[in-house]
Write a structure and sequence with these properties.
Layout lengths: L2 H22 L13 H21 L15 H21 L15 H22 L11 H14 L14 E7 L5 E6 L5 E4 L7 E5 L1 H8 L7 E4 L1 H10 L6
Parallel strand pairs: 1-4
Antiparallel strand pairs: 1-2, 2-3, 4-5
Helix pairs in contact: 1-3, 1-4, 2-3, 2-4, 5-6
Length: 246
């Protein structure tokens, strides 16, 4: 995917998130994020959008802390979220191709990193907003975008020292998107997981299914579509793979 495509996804998903939140109401429970109500989802995602915008627009070359979550609620909170989302989209659209700023994952460029990361951040939280609405289908994610998100999560996010997916007993987890040719091999040990694209030898456990459902399962928003082999590795992922803010 290219930068312009990521920005279009970010724009669409942020607008959907706000519309869902408005329909559900601030008190609605976000079942995919235990303990959260819709107001918490808006405050968190809006804070992340503003944090990302600061790097893109102000060009911070080192880590810069977020501005915290507001005490706003109701219509004021929705307006705040929409304004911040719009500024992020505009900031990415207006940023120079040679933008220099801090990032935290390998990427072709800082602009490509922030466009990609915020597109996936917002998509996952849009799914969260739908969990506050009864009877809403959460599989409306393009397969190619889902594959890209799985790649970012396995090869990027969980390659960091912050990953808690570790085990004293080594194991190999296979992740296979059955509606595409995408497959990953994830080696789990007492170090951060080591993931590579491809079917690299024997695996102890395999998670497989359509890319969109697999993407949401790996982000712990849906159950794994299909599991074969050692269920302990799947449990290890489910219980330890949450990406925690801060």
């Amino acid at each position: 995917m290219n930068i312009a495509q990521y920005i279009r996804v970010l724009e669409k998903e942020g607008q959907l998130l706000a519309s869902n939140a408005e329909l559900a109401g601030p008190d609605a429970t976000v079942s995919t994020c235990p303990g959260w109500q819709v107001r918490d989802l808006l405050r968190h995602t809006g804070m992340v959008h503003r944090w990302a915008t600061a790097f893109v627009v102000e060009g911070h070359r080192s880590y810069h802390p977020d501005g915290g979550e507001p005490a706003l609620d109701g219509a004021e909170l929705l307006d705040w979220f929409r304004a911040g989302h719009a500024r992020l989209v505009a900031g990415l659209e207006g940023a120079p191709a040679d933008l220099e700023c801090w990032t935290f994952l390998p990427a072709p460029s800082p602009l490509a990193f922030w466009a990609r990361r915020q597109a996936h951040e917002t998509t996952v939280h849009r799914v969260d907003s739908e969990s506050a609405l009864r009877g809403t289908d959460r599989d409306t994610i393009d397969a190619a975008f889902a594959v890209d998100g799985i790649e970012e999560l396995l090869v990027g996010m969980h390659a960091r020292e912050k990953s808690r997916v570790r085990s004293a007993k080594p194991g190999v987890l296979r992740v296979r998107a059955t509606d595409t040719d995408a497959v990953w091999t994830v080696r789990i040990s007492d170090a951060p997981p080591s993931a590579e694209r491809g079917d690299a030898g024997e695996a102890d456990c395999e998670l497989s299914g359509p890319a969109a459902r697999l993407y949401l399962a790996l982000w712990n928003r849906l159950p794994a579509p299909r599991l074969t082999g050692d269920p302990e590795l799947a449990r290890l992922w489910r219980e330890n793979s949450a990406v925690v803010w801060g």
